[in-house]
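hi! just following up on the protien thing from before. the input was this:
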Amino acid sequence: MPLLYEDTSELHAIAHRIRRHADEVRSRAAALAARAEQTRWHSAGAAAFRERARCASHAMRTAAGRLDDAADALDRHANRVHQVLAAMQHVATAAVGEGVHLVDEVGDFVGSALDCIGL
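and the predicted 3d structure came back as:
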């Protein structure tokens, strides 16, 4: 994977996929918690099982939040890359324009010099 994408839409697409995974993890965490709470047996083992399921569900929701944070960071990075590429394009366009202008000025100078010496 290149470090700098010229087309930042790919970076945004990756961020979108990360968000979809976060949503799926959250959905599975909710399903796990709901199923654990729906158990019908009552004992110390059942209570321990429900507590473990709650802890796992909480950890899954935390992981989903971190995935969301990563997707947000990737989107921000893609936006910055886009801004840098746009600025570089602007500078390159200006430099080309100045280069053309400079060539015209040099051409005028050479033409004037040649006129001065009679060529």
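The CA atoms of residues 93 and 105 lie 18 Å apart.
The first helix runs from residue 9 to 37.
cheers
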